[in-house]
Write a structure and sequence with these properties.
30% helix; 9 helices; five-stranded antiparallel β-sheet; 320 residues; alpha+beta
């Protein structure tokens, strides 16, 4: 393993090295915890993130105590020590399902304002069978802050379209912004055509690129706050100015409390994603008892049970 100074060589490395090698970015983290319960509203759990080096590995990193099913791909990244603890097919280009929404949030946070009021057009309607949504209608309005919370906690696809049109001018324009941002942070094996991750041709990313995207999103306190929430209640307005109250709950089973992390590991939060094409996907921020942060990602698991069993085993590698 070798480390390359990102301040000098980042554009070269992101364009060339990341396209052929698995890697883990270095982030220097200062940890601040104001509460004991990490899953709830109004948390203050922020990680000061900035990737100053890029460490690369030339092959999968396996463990005698950890195996993934044939379909699954993923990795475990120790952020403080700039070390990839586990990696299987982290450069495989896969459909990301709603992991896409991490990139949507990153672009919105970078180019939008949290108090910006978003207005739904007719393009807000999502007709795909089984697609997660809150039932937005043309003319509905809410702030970007409200929209991001519903997007990341509940994974609402209609809210993803709302954000995209208001920030990017159109779905296509926002997708262009997503792709430009992906290139800028080194996620060079990704390509996005929509803000929600519903199955589309030429829409893909890799487990390693998802690590890069998630790590970049963590530079925003709002993102870190949202992914630690288990539920959110808000009021938005329809075209006639009438209030609409909505409560959403996290799709992450660790946040719901129905899945338990290994002892000595705390799951802070993350993002789920599931479609027939993508399988079952999950990316998480976790910490050990010394408050060291880790990003864990699994994509293309064959079922929810397989996904969470493998993720729990992957998190166990932190303390093994």
């Amino acid at each position: 393993m070798r480390c390359i100074n990102k301040k000098v060589f980042v554009s070269f490395i992101c364009t060339i090295a990341v396209s052929v090698l698995s890697a883990c970015g270095n982030s220097a983290y200062s940890l601040s915890y104001s509460v004991e319960n990490y899953h709830g509203t109004n948390q203050n759990i922020y990680y000061d993130t900035f990737a100053s080096d890029l460490c690369v590995v030339n092959e999968d990193i396996l463990s005698d105590s950890m195996t993934m099913s044939e379909a699954s791909c993923g990795g475990l990244f120790d952020l403080n020590n700039r070390e990839t603890l586990y990696a299987v097919n982290v450069n495989a280009q896969l459909s990301p399902a709603s992991l896409t929404k991490v990139m949507t949030a990153l672009v919105a946070l970078k180019y939008g304002s949290l108090d910006q009021r978003l207005t739904a057009s007719s393009n807000v309607y999502v007709t795909e069978s089984g697609a997660q949504k809150i039932g937005l209608k043309e003319g509905d309005t809410m702030t970007l802050d409200q929209a991001l919370r519903i997007l990341l906690i509940y994974s609402a696809n209609d809210v993803a379209n709302l954000i995209a049109e208001n920030i990017g001018g159109s779905i296509e324009g926002f997708a262009d912004m997503m792709n430009q941002e992906a290139q800028a942070i080194g996620a060079t094996k990704s390509h996005f055509v929509n803000p929600h991750g519903l199955t589309a041709e030429d829409h893909y990313t890799t487990p390693y690129d998802m690590y890069l995207i998630f790590n970049a999103a963590m530079q925003y306190d709002t993102f870190q706050e949202i992914i630690a929430m288990t539920e959110y209640t808000t009021v938005y307005y329809n075209a006639d100015g009438e209030s609409q109250e909505k409560t959403v709950k996290s799709t992450n089973l660790y946040s719901q409390g129905t899945q338990t992390a290994p002892s000595n590991i705390t799951v802070i939060g993350g993002k789920t994603g599931t479609t027939n094409a993508a399988g079952h996907c999950l990316i998480l921020l976790a910490r050990d008892n010394s408050s060291n942060p880790y990003i864990a990602v699994i994509m293309r698991a064959e079922s929810s049970d397989v996904l969470y069993n493998e993720m729990t085993n992957l998190l166990q590698e932190i303390v093994n």
